[in-house]
Structure prediction request, 241 residues.
Amino acid sequence: MIKTFAENGINITEEQAEKFQTYYGLLTEWNQKINLTAITEYEEVVRKHFIDSALLLRCEKFIGRKGKRVLDVGTGAGFPGIVLSILCPEASFVLLDSLKKRVDFLNLVIEKLQLKNVQVFHGRAEDFGRQKDFRNQFDFVVSRAVAELPLLLEYCIPFVRRDGYFISYKGRKYKEEMEMADNAFEKLSCHFENEEIFSLKGEQLSQGDEQDKRVLLFIQNEKDTDSKYPRRAGKPKKNPL
Prediction:
């Protein structure tokens, strides 16, 4: 595992590798009881979940900010939040998910891996985004494999502090989503700053195939979010900005 991470530009310690091994075991065990992931083969989980989540550590904007507070919206099985918390013990992480069974799984992972820098909350982004302790409070908000960008912006920007960043994990179709999000950018007073493009190493891909392309979109919040957003639970998904 250490070698596979290194091939993708990320160095991990023996202790971190052991945590990922334990995480993998818990993931596959619990996946038999609840739907956590369609990807279960070891090498694929390492590359398509662990390393994919960890690509943020190759971005200077993220690694350069000390004492950062990070929120993972719609964390699911803990991607990218748990992965990042293993690799960034100096940062603090909050994970949010709407399914109680996934939250139970994540709390077990945190206990077994003895992670001291993570908290998990059960609830919807639309509700937590209006709470004082969460609204415009985070240096970085991340989200992976949750929704298209216009919807994600309404879910995530209300959590981002002024001049902080929402970082959206996307694939090869990210430009199409960007074009759909112009209205959301305007309504939520945020702007696209840059993208970081990566290619996962070691996958069996046909020549010219872009399935391995990974894109991190850096979207900066310009000011405290308008009190109209997020709209009440369910409305953003039914009628995206």
